Amino acid sequence: MSDDVLVVFTPSGKRGRVPAGISVLDAARKLGVDLDSVCGGRGICSKCQVAPGAGQFAKHGIAMAPDALTAINEVEQRYDRLRGLQAGRRLGCQARLQSDAVIDVPPESQLHRQVIRKSASERVMVMDPAVRSYFIEVTQPSLHDPDSDFDRISSALAQQWQIEGLTADLPVLARIQKVLRKGDWQVTAIIGQAEGMAPRLIDLIPGFDQQPLLGLAVDLGTTTIAGHLVALDDGRVLASDGLMNPQIRFGEDLMSRVSYGMMNDSGAAEMTAAVRAGLGDLVARLADEAGVSARQIVDATIVCNPVMHHLLLGLDPVELGQAPFPPVVSDALSLPARDLEVPIHEAARIYILPLIAGHVGADAAAVVLSEQPQKSAAPVLVVDVGTNAELILGDETRVLACSSPTGPAFEGAQINNGQRAAPGAIERVRIDPVTKEPRFRVIGVESWSDEDGFEDAVKATGITGICGSGIIEIVAEMRIAGIIDRSGLIGSPEQTGTARCIPDGRTFSYLLHDGSETGGPRIAVTQGDIRAIQLAKSAVHAGARLLMDEFGIEEVDRVVLAGAFGAHISPLHALVLGMIPNCDPARVTSAGNAAGTGARMALCSRAARREIEAEVRRITRIETAIAPLFQQHFVAANGIPHATDAFDKLAGVVTLPDVGFQASAGRARRRRG
Amino acid sequence: MSDDVLVVFTPSGKRGRVPAGISVLDAARKLGVDLDSVCGGRGICSKCQVAPGAGQFAKHGIAMAPDALTAINEVEQRYDRLRGLQAGRRLGCQARLQSDAVIDVPPESQLHRQVIRKSASERVMVMDPAVRSYFIEVTQPSLHDPDSDFDRISSALAQQWQIEGLTADLPVLARIQKVLRKGDWQVTAIIGQAEGMAPRLIDLIPGFDQQPLLGLAVDLGTTTIAGHLVALDDGRVLASDGLMNPQIRFGEDLMSRVSYGMMNDSGAAEMTAAVRAGLGDLVARLADEAGVSARQIVDATIVCNPVMHHLLLGLDPVELGQAPFPPVVSDALSLPARDLEVPIHEAARIYILPLIAGHVGADAAAVVLSEQPQKSAAPVLVVDVGTNAELILGDETRVLACSSPTGPAFEGAQINNGQRAAPGAIERVRIDPVTKEPRFRVIGVESWSDEDGFEDAVKATGITGICGSGIIEIVAEMRIAGIIDRSGLIGSPEQTGTARCIPDGRTFSYLLHDGSETGGPRIAVTQGDIRAIQLAKSAVHAGARLLMDEFGIEEVDRVVLAGAFGAHISPLHALVLGMIPNCDPARVTSAGNAAGTGARMALCSRAARREIEAEVRRITRIETAIAPLFQQHFVAANGIPHATDAFDKLAGVVTLPDVGFQASAGRARRRRG
């Protein structure tokens, strides 16, 4: 056995000479190799498992001797007996290097594990949570060494884990005495290490604690509150759930809630209490689903729009309802969970992502974090449609953001047969360009309306109305089928060749479904519905064009539809409608719940928090309200897909008939008169 | 008017060339002269008043022209009209330098004012509180500049006061929106700048706020809670008050409270609630006395012994009651006032001084801060006597500390006619060495018992017993008068020549006062009383000797008696009793309530907080319980003043008669048998 040995770790390729007899774990630490350990090398946690190589490694210039590592020892044998050690694996803290060796660190033994996010772009995220646990051995006090219990924990963390300057809140301090003694001076310390703050003792548990630390990622929306329960060691989602935002009873949309706050002295406080209670319900549900205690949740992140942000924090949202819309505070916040009355671990903090502006929220910031326009080579437009559309346009050079007031049409409000996305709502529609006959799908039923079994299947819910994604598809399909013209007018039965176009006052409606025979509603799309959708989509389009003007481009390379709504609308139909600017349909994708993904990223990675805080400071905010060109863009966007833009990227995918019904509307009026 | 001018500021002597036309305030800032300003030079606060010189200043080489400063302007005239400007004074922010000048900064215009502390050593303290107010002008938001309200405040503080990285808690954030608009974007920000923490917005007040910021300094004792209300600009005490610690109902001394906590499940919590309620009462009383609102109290400091420390914080004190006495936490703490339920400003923090050890408290640390043994050239012994004696011995080279268990005798417990220090208690005693007749003073009565008017004056309270300081004087006086010998034995009437020595079982008692004729008690000092005092004082003496051994000295240069008790006992009598080691009586002084002074210093000065935190880490803790020599010192100290030490420093001040009553005790026994 020579004095020092050469060791190469794979897959990192880190190599170096270390003293013979050193443990593999210590060698890994010396060489900066990412090898996990919670117990600090005491053979308890098994996190440091490695797979030693064997034989010749020409690439590394190493011929491994059979006894390059010490033989399996008692600690490993016991561990194998009790919990099973995979063949070829060793505990890195037990196996010692006797001669040159090549050691593989399997993915599950890496502290900073890489997690592939299932998003359009499949990016890799490195686990780097703000809360971790550390097993420590604490020296016992004696008359010769009567330091405080807290000093002992602090010293143990400094010596055994290089964590300096520990702090703790009173409730944790009140427990440490008993826990140290119960654990016989061996304890697991749960430590919060948030950016810019001293390390904080969140909890202390007797002995070596095997329970995984959990985190909560919340997308707090105007209508729904969605949450994920996440394991903080590897980022896996243990439970997901959502509930209606209990604030709904104060107003369906944001502006009605802001008004409620203005009209009622205790209005804002009531709404704050309601949303906090909702978060409490969500926590209880998630913990129940995953079969864990809510106290295991030691960290949380929340993303939300500015009004929800203020109402959650107990800040008056009134200024957000009027120009110049200044928020009370826009920076990222890290607040004690108990200050927000969220019933997770009593010493947990909640990280709230920064607002981009008074009308571009932390949810938009989370979308930026998830979709990373700032890393795109070509300009990408990210569109998050709700009551407000939040628009982000950017590439590596710069990122712009604005919001545009769409109104509630996309949520099914102001639509004749509109309704929420709920069982019974029509969500997908196709219209035959020849027969003009529709077929559709209803939420809660697998088959299309023209397929076998549909009628039976739909009996449970009935066909009750049209939800937001449904109305977008219908209007686009009507345009493709020549039932409406570029200006949005519905043609007469004669002009369109279908009896489904029915006179309705001075205009026509398109009958989508007549349920009256079976006691259900007649579901039709009125001219008013088309106008409402035109206004809403023009706002989105105009906002996007304003950003493009500012960016100095005529075209975007790709479009990402974000948000729960974006996940349900068809990219092609959004293009035909002209909600988004002219773009190759193959380059329009849905990002799913990108805000929720951003919340999970911030939960799993402190680097992600730093990144979004820096990025938000860099984003240029564009105010649609004072942009001279906004109105002009808005008017031109009223056409379907656009009054002046040919939308040439649609060519080859879909052909829009060149119809015009101006006269027919006149005829309908005359007929009525 | 030349391009730049020479200006000299007195008394600092700081001088330099500044551009002509600059305001005196700006010149002071450029040259690093300590000139106060709260409004930042807007002519509102009047804190920057200066006294310009006139004529020749040979020393500085300056001949001041009559128009060296600009003439008094409108702002100054208005200020003079409204609030009065002292003759010869100018507002530093208004007066501008036109040619060379000498400018005096009067003491009240210095930001870091020097305050002479009324202590034995009359040290100077520089005001440097952790909370200050700053007047700021905040830019209004517009669509072109829609930053958050908090960002605006943060920027204004950075630009106008160089305070970077502001933070705020939720309750303050919830108010800033309204305050900014009410103050028309001119506001006074109350900022906490505690050591090692980011600057914190404590409150925001519309306009320029004239109300002084207040601080609370508390000495939380086992028996009493004493507090001072202090103005944070100049350190003046606006009100002082004290009340009984409501925990008394759970036990008079610390150990009985620790036991109560051990015996009753919710015992510690009840005591925590009681002491916090007591602090609340104290706050209410102090605010009432000073005619201020408790919300004006924006900072607080607390000193206390380790058991009170733990009970206040809600930490279990049990471990403090048994070796090795480890506290839960000993570092200085800065905690939100609301966490301790102290009803001062809701965003205030409370600074609790560090514990020195599990049985040497934050009160002892405060004594160190006040008495500064670490700055003494020769070794000084600081003695704080209560149920425990806390002893500190140090000089510039090192500081040692220990505690020694005295028991409750010095508090009047275990004494035949002992009682608390309350009206009617005998507190001072003199015994005529020839006649052996006593005279005394009673709490609540000005005159001595042998003076005219005493009998009338004392009728209100009666003469009810002997308090702690009284018993020390009596025992020492009995020794001086030859009524007891070195071993502490009381002599017979024959041996002492006075009928006041009365047989009492096998021993004698000394009759101090016979109130039986007027229906009052007979007050006598029994042999048991002497023994109890001997045990108590031996513990103090032995602790001091142990520190001296460790320090390697045979004698201390001076002794400081600290604590409320120390303030009431006579240094000479403490020496005669041998409670403290042999020392020149002229070098034994009382420091008054040094712990309370230390609390006030920490309130007024962040430098003082840094100093005591650093000093406490440097202090060597000596454990009397494991010191082999402690018992030996204790036994030798049983003599009065000492069994073996001659106490030669008493020579020339008082002569102790060389009497011995060993035989007489035997005689008393025989007489009884």
Give a written overview of the molecule.
Chains A, B: Residues 3-109 form the 2Fe-2S ferredoxin-type domain. Chains A, B: GO terms for molecular function: iron-sulfur cluster binding. Chains A, B: Pfam families: RACo_C_ter (PF14574), RACo_linker (PF17650), Raco_middle (PF17651). 2 copies of one chain form a homodimer. By secondary structure, chain A is an alpha/beta fold. Helices cover 29% and strands 23% of the residues of chain A. The first copy, chain A, contains 18 helices and 31 strands. In chain A, helix 10 (468-480) packs across helix 14 (571-577) and helix 12 (527-551) crosses helix 17. The interface between A and B is large, with 43 and 43 residues.
Features of this protein?
disordered C terminus, Beta-grasp_dom_sf (chains A, B), Corrinoid_activation_enz (chains A, B), RACo_linker (chains A, B), six-stranded mixed beta sheet, iron-sulfur cluster binding (chains A, B), homodimer, Nucleotidyltransferase, domain 5, 673 residues, Ubiquitin-like (UB roll), alpha/beta
Itemize the secondary structure elements and their pairings:
The structure is a homodimer of 673-residue chains.
Chain A: E1 4-10, E2 15-19, H1 24-30, E3 49-52, E4 55-57, E5 62-64, H2 74-83, E6 90-91, E7 101-104, E8 114-116, E9 124-126, E10 131-137, H3 149-161, E11 167-168, H4 170-182, E12 186-192, E13 200-206, E14 214-220, E15 224-231, E16 237-244, H5 254-263, H6 267-290, E17 297-304, H7 306-313, E18 333-336, E19 349-352, H8 362-371, E20 380-385, E21 388-394, E22 399-405, E23 425-431, E24 438-442, H9 454-458, E25 465-466, H10 468-480, H11 493-496, E26 501-504, E27 507-514, E28 522-525, H12 527-551, E29 558-562, H13 563-568, H14 571-577, E30 588-590, H15 594-604, H16 606-618, E31 620-621, H17 630-636, H18 662-672
Parallel strand pairs in A: 1-7, 11-13, 14-17, 17-19, 20-29, 22-31, 23-25, 29-30
Antiparallel strand pairs in A: 1-2, 3-6, 3-7, 4-5, 8-9, 10-12, 12-13, 14-15, 15-16, 18-19, 20-21, 21-22, 23-24, 26-27, 27-28
Helix pairs in contact in A: 5-6, 8-15, 8-16, 10-14, 12-17, 15-16
